[in-house]
Amino acid sequence: MATTNPLQFIQQVRAETAKIVWPTRREVVLTSVMVFIMASLVGIFFALVDLAIRSGLTGVLAFFGTN
Fold first, then answer.
1. Domain coverage including residue 67
2. How many domains does the structure of the chain reveal?
3. CB-side exposure of 23: number of CA atoms within 13 Å?
4. Phi, psi values for residue 62, rounded to 5°
5. Residue 9 falls inside a structural domain
6. Region 33-41: what's the mean pLDDT?
7. What's the whole-number mean pLDDT along residues 31-55?
8. For residues 36 and 51, what is the distance between their CA atoms, to the nearest angstrom?
9. Is the dihedral of CA 11, 13, 14, 15 positive or negative?
10. pTM
11. What is the pLDDT of residue 45?
12. How far, in Å, CA of 13 to CA of 19, rounded?
């Protein structure tokens, strides 16, 4: 494995850092809104699934006469 001296390492880090493309403000806002919407939809979905399972289980237990 080749070793690099600290100066070469810093130069390589600066070269890689120069390649970073930061998102625009519009992209950040848009993706944040999309994440919020998807998280809300998933939360609603699981709340409905929980409600259905709870209702079904309550119905089954009531059918067999267990309190």
1. 24-67
2. 1
3. 8
4. -70, -35
5. no
6. 98
7. 98
8. 22
9. positive
10. 0.64
11. 98
12. 10
Residue whose structure tokens are 């699934």: 49
Maximum CA extent, the chain: 78
Q: Which residue has the tokens 């609603």?
A: 44
| Placement of tokens 């079904």 in the chain | 56
**Residue 39, pLDDT above cutoff 90:** yes
d(CA 18, CA 26): 22
For residue 2, is it within any domain?
Answer: no
Bigger pLDDT: 52 or 5?
A: 52
DSSP state at residue 65: T
Supply the pLDDT for residue 1: 61
Name which residue leads in pLDDT, 1 or 45: 45
Residues 32 and 38: their CA atoms lie apart, in Å, by 10
Any domain includes 17: no
